[in-house]
Amino acid sequence: MEDQRVVEFIYDFDNLGTPETIKENIIIPFPLNQVDELVNKIIKSDEVLLFMDFNKELKEKLTLFVREENQKFYDDQDDYLIEKFKNGEIDTEEIVRNLEKLYKEEVLEYADRIGPTDDEIFAQSFHRLVHSSSCLPDILEKEKAYARVIAEMTKRMETEIENLNAQQQDEMKEYIDQLDVSKTSEDINNLLARHYSTQNYVRKKWESELEAKRGHQKNEYREWVTGQVGKLFETSSPVTTPVGSRSSTFISQAPSMEESFTIHLGSQLKHMHNIRILGANIYDLCSPLHADESLNGLNMALGLYSSSLCGVVVLTPSGQIRANNQIIKNANMSTEFHFDQIDEQLDKIMSDVNGVCEQKQNSNGSPIKVTPRLKTGDFFITKHSNLSQSHVIFHLISDEPHASEINSRHPVILGLRNIMKVASRHDIVTLTIPALLRHEMSEDMTVQWCVRRAELIFKCVKGFMIESSTWGGAELSTLQFLLPFDISEELFNTLTAMVPNVFRVANPKILVDNTSRKDS
To answer: What is the pLDDT of residues 179-210, one digit of tens each?
Structure first.
């Protein structure tokens, strides 16, 4: 196959009654944007033609000739390639590799990145600063200052919306009182439409301002962190790691009811684990990071980019991929500097689910799009650095009816197993699981039902922990069983007493001095 060809361009014209001919060899393919340059070259090559006004006609003829010859050249190439493909003489893999190479060389979007990405540079810079005793206080103070700004804007937004709601309710009450007197049902419907439009405008305005403020804070914070690393290198002082930087235990307001155990699991080689059973609100484990003066900000910062991450399992109904409203509100009370905001994460998850959604056909054979819907036992993950006790939230889909009975093969139980497997493979060493697969108590949750449910969860989780030795990855050092915050103290003590019977609790050994006993 030829890469190019030479064709002769012939142009006949009348030169003051004398027929003349121009001949020019042209290399095909020839760029059309260079036709003007070629016309000037032809004119200057013949002094006789300098006195003739035929530039426009020559350009038209030459442009048409070049376009036709280019198209013919490409058509011949296509015919040649098609014939070779039919004969099996073309290596399609080689063509793909060459195309990929051209894209990487010419298109920036597909080019191979040389060096670390901006996110990697920021992560390395933050990790170095946060383990420096001189820089850690500055980081926490800057994050708190940013969080106060977002919290204040959120508070002003909620206040304005509440005042607007009160004003609109009073206005609606006046319309209803005047119904069939001076107002009609159409007037009320129009008022409702105006109220909705006003509320939507106010909410969108504040959300836009908050989004812009978070984006500004995130860029400013990242530039500040990477800039501080340069100053740290200039000082060339040794980097000291604060005590407890590897710990995954959070210091926070103690729950009303709590009990801890140390257990040993394993068939041959025993591994020690911490079991903690507590009664608390699930939102206390996902509260805004800088809402108070606790040390959670310190522990969250030290845990990031480490092998000591903390995860929480939150039960979520099926339907659209959306986290609990309270968790979304808590996560949006401050800027997420290390990951996307929770709304953006949920949008990406929804997009991924849409991408893998199967195409089905209706009765007439035309394809229909299946609405994405996660079923019971599925889960999706969001990542956080601005929540008090959770680096990772596992949103477990659970549509189980209240007080229903389940077994060890129930989809929710299998979902817990998959969550523990993911946690083991991604350095999540502290995991919180709802012990009753409920976040709140209800009247139909009897004592007997709670005992059976807790025993099932304890035994299944114990089996998963023993099995985890074959999964590879991090060892689950701390497992928290979360009971509903409104559980009674008596029922809490009953369920706590089950832990030593299900797990192998490491009891302390009491040594008795027989000699001193005989002397006495």
So the answer is: 888 888 898 899 999 999 999 999 999 999 99
- Cα 432 to Cα 448: distance, rounded to the nearest angstrom: 23
Torsion of CA 217, 218, 222, 227, to 10 degrees: -10
Which structure tokens are listed for 315?
């039960």
Strand partners, 359: 369
Question: What stretch of H or E contains 7?
Answer: strand 5-15
- Please choose, from the candidates 148, 290, 123, the residue with its C-alpha nearest in 3D space to the C-alpha of residue 222: 123
Q: Is residue 258 helix, strand or coil?
A: strand
Residues 49 and 139 in one domain: no
Range of the domain at 299: 257-339+371-502
The closest of 330, 449, 447, 333 to 390, measured between CA atoms, is 330
Let me know: does 475 contact 423? Beta carbons within 8 Å.
Answer: no
| Angstrom distance (rounded) from CA 38 to CA 25 | 11
- Are 292 and 333 in contact by the 8 Å Cβ rule? The answer is no
Q: Alpha helices, DSSP H only, in 20-177? A: 35-45, 55-86, 92-106, 118-130, 136-177
What phi, psi does 264 have (nearest 5°)?
A: -125, 130
Q: Say if pTM beats, i.e. exceeds, 0.85.
A: no
Dihedrals phi, psi of 124, to nearest 5 degrees: -65, -40
Place of tokens 């060892």: 475
- In this prediction, residue 244 has a pLDDT band, given cuts at 50, 70 and 90, of very low
Alpha-carbon distances of 422 from 86, 155, 167, 466, 493, rounded to whole Å: 49, 37, 50, 15, 31
The two tokens of residue 202 are 């106010």
Name the burial class of residue 365, with classes exposed (0-12), middle (13-18) and buried (19+) by CB atoms within 10 angstroms of its CB. exposed
User: Within 10 A of 68 (CB to CB), how many other CB atoms are there?
Assistant: 12
> How far from 154 is each of 130, 147, 183, 207, 504, CA to CA, in Å?
28, 10, 37, 9, 48
Domain check: are 301 and 391 in the same one? yes
Mark whether 289 and 213 lie in a shared domain: no
